[in-house]
Amino acid sequence: MYNYKNYLLTALVTLFASCSLMLQAACVDAVVLVHGNTATPASWNNTYNYLLTKGYSSSIWGENASYNYLPGHFGLQTDTAAQQYQLIK
Q1: Signal sequence span per UniProt (predicted)?
Q2: Could you write out the DSSP letters of every residue in 22-83?
Q3: What pTM, to 2 d.p., does this model score?
Q4: CA-closest candidate to residue 70, choices 57, 52, 87, 82
Q5: What is the model's pLDDT at position 86?
């Protein structure tokens, strides 16, 4: 009976620790990436790889991103971008 209690206690501790790690990994801060006039897609490679190591998934940016409707290059989206920044701030 004593071994059964130890196994059960060990299993519960492992389960709670795993859940805690999963919840922590699911919560990441919002990141706003802004490029300059001379930037290229390759200029984001280091940032992209760094964010992947910090728990971000490639499915939350790019074409799949929920805020991917600000692609203009004529300054017309500055108000919209500022509003979105305030929402995620």
Answers
A1: 1-25
A2: HHHHH----------TT--GGGGHHHHHHHHHTT--GGGSGGG-TT-----SSSTTHHHHHH
A3: 0.43
A4: 82
A5: 76
